[in-house]
Write a structure and sequence with these properties.
Elements: E1 4-9, H1 13-25, E2 30-37, E3 43-46, E4 49-52, H2 54-77, E5 83-88, H3 91-101, E6 106-110, H4 116-122, H5 125-132, E7 137-140
Parallel strand pairs: 1-2, 1-6, 2-5, 6-7
Antiparallel strand pairs: 3-4
C-alpha cells in the first residue's frame, strides 16, 4: 500500500484547494480528510463548568459531516475513494495529535497566504501544523 496522506479541511477556499491538490498529486495514495470541530467558542459557563447546548452541538456536528460528505463526493467524481474523520478539539493540536496517533506520512493543508506582520500577529493553523508535525507538510494557497 502507498503512503497515507492527511488533508485537514475547514470551510475555507484554501482547504478546498488543498484537497484538490492532494487528489491531483496523490491519486494512488491513501487519502484521509480530517475536519476538527472546535467547541470552545460554543460553550456557556455554568455551575459545572462549560456546558454545550445539545441542539447547537448537533447542528455543528451535522455541518461538519456535510463538509466531509462534500469532500467524499468531490473525490468520487475523480474516481478516488477517500476516508474521512471528524475529531473535536483545538485545530492545530488535534491535527498534530491525529498525525502522531495514526500512520500518516504526509500532510497537505490549505494556507491563508498570510505573510509579514499579519502572519506573526494572527498565526494560523497551517503554520502551527507545519512547525509541529513529525512528517512533511505541503501548504497550498
Amino acid at each position: 500500500m502507498g503512503r497515507n496522506i492527511l488533508v485537514p479541511i475547514d470551510q475555507s477556499d484554501q482547504a478546498t484547494k488543498a484537497l484538490e491538490y492532494a487528489l491531483e498529486e496523490y491519486p494512488d495514495e491513501h487519502i484521509t480528510v480530517l475536519h476538527v470541530l472546535q467547541l470552545d467558542s460554543t460553550a456557556t459557563h455554568g455551575d459545572e463548568g462549560f456546558l454545550y447546548r445539545d441542539e447547537f452541538l448537533e447542528q455543528l456536528h451535522e455541518a461538519s459531516e456535510e463538509r466531509l460528505e462534500t469532500a467524499r463526493e468531490h473525490a468520487a467524481e475523480q474516481g478516488i475513494e477517500i476516508d474521512t474523520e471528524l475529531v473535536r478539539g483545538e485545530p492545530a493540536r488535534a491535527i498534530t495529535e491525529y498525525i502522531e496517533n495514526n500512520d500518516i506520512d504526509h500532510v497537505v493543508i490549505g494556507s491563508h497566504g498570510r505573510s509579514g506582520p499579519t502572519r506573526v500577529l494572527l498565526g494560523s493553523v497551517a503554520e502551527a501544523v507545519t512547525r509541529r508535525a513529525p512528517v512533511p507538510v505541503t501548504t497550498v494557497r
